[in-house]
Design goal:
The complex is a heterodimer of chains A (about 260) and B (about 170). Chain A is of the alpha+beta class. In chain A, about 40% of the residues lie in helices and about 20% in strands. Chain A is built from 8 helices and 10 strands. In chain A, strands 1-2-3-4-6-5 form a 6-stranded antiparallel beta sheet. Chain B is α+β, with helices and mostly antiparallel strands and about 170 residues long. Helix content of chain B is about 25%, strand content about 30%. Chain B is built from 3 helices and 10 strands; from the N terminus they run H-E-E-E-E-E-E-E-E-E-E-H-H. In chain B, strands 1, 2, 3, 4, 5, 6, 9 and 10 form an 8-stranded antiparallel beta sheet that branches. In chain B, strands 7-8 form a two-stranded antiparallel sheet. Classes of the chains: A alpha+beta (about 260), B alpha+beta (about 170). Chains A and B meet through strand 2, helix 2, helix 6 and helix 7 of A and strand 3, strand 4, strand 5, strand 6 and strand 7 of B.
């Protein structure tokens, strides 16, 4: 194949099939510039590995790239982090690729196209199994929740029960961050973010019947950082001891409620 | 036992975050919003769009179990290529990732992935249409501002795609 021949879908299909057989398809994504190679290799959710061949400005040299799909897929479950990108870069380098603007890629002469395609398949498969678990930093609100529970334990010691699910709760989702057991139970929800506010409101309503005498207290990290809607729902469902987390205000409010 | 896949999909949802978080990451753009629902589950909706191929995107319903890793419940995908449904020929083009009919009534386990996929009409290669379908499918009440943000994101990437087409030079 001469490097001066125009890059076409049929021409690429011939090269790819010569190595992989008839189960391979090449389709045009952007005429003359971007082509997709479909091979029967799939990720854990059933999507095929994503491989593109892109024209470069150097004659006879092609770019084998994922067009940043691997990184994009990693953010479906987890937030994008620098660790995620660093993990992908390390994996790409081990396989002779680099990461540029999120895309795992390498540039090769046409005769080296097939090994490069295989390399990209390997990177995509490994990224899911290796990069994603390593980049995962654990449940996001856990640090703030820990602070609140520690503050409660310092003040109320054995009266505190963490991660409380009352008997008969509809399901394990409706877990209270901590309860402080007095004559009446004080249920405490730590609220570092909007999603935790929504979770807490849901828990409050789901458990109302199971804990009819409980007093419900929410501890926002900073109530002004919540959206208007979540803030309003939270304030309707819970007593808020202070706008920002303040261990003394929290203890004082619980003591007031406990003797009331 | 946590909620079932069907419960998470069917529960009526509204957009809680009036402050939308649009994200600019290497190679793709995204939007994340927190959802409200009663009974309350920790659910977010997210959009991810590839900046080089605007027809390749995902609209995602994500569930965050207490103190556990987030799980994708359902995804509406644009056209990223093929998807394999076990025991059937691969499908191409837009599709919805969901639980299989057998999984739907079961509580989500911590390694759940929506592997099953149904093909959808080719018009859902366009994100604004797919977003509308996504909201209908997972029962999110219409939110005009969010729909406009999604459309704007898509249009910006479409414009960049057109610019790239006109700037492309033939090295040969």
């Amino acid at each position: 194949m001469s490097s001066s021949t125009p890059l076409t879908q049929d021409r690429l299909a011939d090269v790819v099939r010569s190595g992989f057989g008839e189960g391979i398809r090449v389709s045009t994504r952007r005429p003359g510039r971007i082509f997709q190679v479909s091979i029967p290799a799939y990720m854990s959710d059933g999507d095929a590995v994503i491989i593109f061949i892109e024209k470069t400005k150097r004659a006879g040299v092609l770019r084998v790239t994922d067009l940043a799909h691997t990184l994009m897929r990693l953010t479906y479950e987890d937030d994008f982090t620098d660790d995620m990108l660093a993990g992908l870069e390390a994996l790409a380098e081990r396989n002779g690729f680099s990461v540029s603007d999120g895309a795992v890629q390498t540039e090769v002469p046409e005769r080296e196209l097939l090994p490069a395609l295989m390399g990209l398949v390997q990177i995509e498969a490994c990224a899911e199994g290796v990069v994603a678990p390593r980049a995962y930093r654990g449940p996001r609100p856990e640090e703030f929740r820990r602070l609140v529970i520690e503050a409660l334990k310092q003040e109320f010691r054995d009266r505190v029960q963490e991660h409380y699910v009352p008997p008969g709760a509809p399901n394990s989702d409706f877990e209270i961050d901590a309860v402080v057991n007095f004559r009446r139970t004080v249920a405490v929800a730590a609220i570092p973010s909007d999603i935790e506010a929504e979770r807490a409101v849901g828990t409050r309503f789901a458990l109302s019947e199971k804990m009819p005498r409980a007093l419900w207290l929410a501890v926002p990290k900073d109530i002004e950082r919540l959206t208007k809607k979540s803030k309003s729902r939270l304030m309707k469902a819970y007593t808020i001891p202070s706008a920002e987390f303040d261990p003394r205000a929290l203890a004082s409010r619980i003591n007031e409620l406990a003797v009331a | 036992m946590g909620p079932s896949w069907s419960q998470l999909v069917a529960v009526p949802k509204t957009v809680a975050s009036v402050r939308l978080r649009t994200k600019s990451h290497p190679g793709h753009r995204g939007i994340d919003v927190v959802l409200s629902c009663d009974p309350g589950y920790a659910l977010t909706a997210a959009v991810r769009v590839n900046v080089r191929l605007l027809e390749s995107f995902s609209a995602i319903l994500r569930y965050e179990p207490p103190r556990s890793r987030p799980l994708v419940v359902l995804r509406v995908n644009g056209d990223h290529g093929e998807h394999a449904v076990p025991g059937e020929p691969p499908i191409s083009g837009p599709h919805i990732h969901r639980a299989s009919p057998e999984q739907e009534p079961l509580p989500l386990h911590d390694r759940f992935k929506p592997k099953h996929a149904d093909p959808i009409d080719a018009k859902y290669r366009s994100l604004p249409f797919a977003w509308e379908l996504f909201c209908r499918t997972v029962n999110i009440a219409p939110h005009e501002r969010l729909a406009r943000v999604v459309a704007r994101l898509y249009n910006e990437i479409a414009q960049a795609d057109i610019d790239e087409l006109f700037n492309a030079t033939d090295p040969g």
